[in-house]
Amino acid sequence: MANAEDEARLQSCLKTIIEVVEETMKKLSGQEESGHFSVDGALDTNIYTFTLDAEEEALMEKMKTELEEILSQNISRLSILSRKYLLDFLYQHSYDYKSREFANPFNCGILKAFLNDVQQMLASLKAFQGAFNGIEGDVKDFLKRFPTMKDRPGLWGTTLLYSAARNNHANLVRYLVSKARCSVNAQNQQQIKRALSKSVKDDYDFVPNPSAGSTALHGACFADHVDIVKFLFKHGADCFLRNHADETPIDNGGTKPNIIKYFTENLILSYSIKTSELPYLPIREEDEDYVVDCFWEYKPFKEQKWFPFSELESITLQGSLIVKPEQEFKREIHLRVRAGTYAVSLIEFLRSGKEVDFTQKFAWIRCRGSSILNFNCYCLWQIMFSKCPNAETEPLLTMLTIPTAYDSNFKVQLDSWYFCDAKTSAQLDHTMKYRRKYIRLVLSHVCHDELLFDFQTFSFTNENGSITGSIRWIPKRISNNPHNKNKIIGIDDFQTLANLDPVPLTTARLRHVLQIDDSMSITDDDELLKNEDEYDSDVDAGDIEDNDDKYIDMNEIKILTLSEIMAAEKVTIEQAVQKLSEANNNSNARLNALETKLDEIHLNVMEQNKNMNMNVPNEIMNVQEKMINQIETIQKRTKELQDTTTSKLEEKQQQWEQLTDNIRDMRTEMKKI
């Protein structure tokens, strides 16, 4: 900790500054009562403007001069640590240490904020010393008055939580995390480049200070306070954050057997790779290399146990999910074994037989490992209940969804897969990314018991074992058809896969989409509904009767542009304009023909309706009325598109005529030259 004499000098300097500012504010308040001034910075909308009042300006200038004199007398007497702490604060208020002056004048609007900051700085000296010594009252009083300081470093560059954890003050640590809501991953003060994840090792002023950038978990691991390590870890402390010396909390506890034992029991070291070393990095999406570290398993449809695939089968399955840009994704692959040939759906992660009794060979499959690490693909999480009170016992092949709101009729279906909601999926993703073995969750709309999820075994259970089950992930699917090559169009489990060309969403695909032109934006899953009319379909009267959801694909009647024609064929501008006019005239002709055909259908239906007996059943009348409404809708859409086509064509023809005239004028001028 800082020298007591030096700290006393800093306190004296701050107290003197406070006295000067308060005295000035009293004078301003006295003038405020006479109707001249306001010192309420919260209500002053011009707090950073200068004053036009000569008396106020004189008071501010006098205060500024006094503050500069106080600082000039005291700063040089402070230690390097205290001086830096004070100057970092003064820099925010435009103080120039070289000239020993404030660059900007004060005004009454910012005076309260300045005073509050100085008081906060003075109070922090006692509070951070209290955190170091475990004096809870000092810390609580400070945070009650200045709650924004809960995660900020103090004079010694450390946070309150770090000081408490480093010195084994367990009760204070619990208060700071549970009551004061301090971030368990707040880092101590560090060099700005290091804070911005820049390399600083070659900088002339770089000093690898282990305390800088450390978290409370760093301090607890280094000091071998295993109970505090457990508490911080359970509250989400990051084991892989690096301090100024490039150390993780695991590195800091590397020589402490109790710390290593705890991390070994609560982190996933690996799946199929044999190792006893603790991990040193989380699973990162930026890594492009594939790592084979997983187990492929299957569970027969009506059994509870998971069985491993053979080594050869696992290799086949592993390769099937790695899709390179030039390759086509196979929705289904075949595994040949002694018992016969199995088909494996990579969409549903379902294995089935090819023989007559194929239904007897249904089995769910899963990959027990990270989808990002093994395949660089994003995933959707699913859970399956094997045991649950008052549950339906007949398994289903249909994939279900966990309710996101209370449903009195909901009952758990045993041995059936449920998609997790977005929040639960995010929590499971986070657990896998940070290689944690366990996470506790409450699925409030399913059961009120806390469930312990084990990521080493891909299973879950409640405390008394009355609820058990399995988890797995399946690849997040997106559309890869020609329309969506540069988009992220999600596919849910309830959509037909026709014309969608489903592929797994990979980290490479996401990076590609983010890097392309801004016009190619990421589309939500729901946006897929807006793209249904992009797929070609031939519509006639029979189609209208067969399917209410079929519409004419207006996009196949394309309005050509000048640039498209000139890019496709090497032609002059005049020739391109002629080709454009011909193409768009053909489009109008097609629209007119389509409208005529629809009019004929409409008249025929109306005529049939007139000739029919009035006792025609209501069902037939309803069908006819539905057909008429659909025809009218299509006619309306056709008319709108035709109007748009004509308007755009006329506009472009005017532009091209002007362009042609300009070119002709240029040619005439060139001939004269």
From TrEMBL:
Q: Which InterPro entries match?
A: Ankyrin_rpt, Ankyrin_rpt-contain_sf, Dendritic_Spine_Reg/Scaffold
Q: Which UniProt keywords apply?
A: ANK repeat, Coiled coil, Repeat
Q: Which residues form a coiled coil?
A: 566-669
Please tell me whether the keyword Coiled coil is annotated for this protein: yes
Spans of the ANK repeats?
212-244
Q: Does the keyword Manganese apply?
A: no
Q: Supply the Pfam families for this chain.
A: Ank_2
Q: Could you tell me what this protein is called?
A: ANK_REP_REGION domain-containing protein
What is the scientific name of the source organism?
Rotaria magnacalcarata
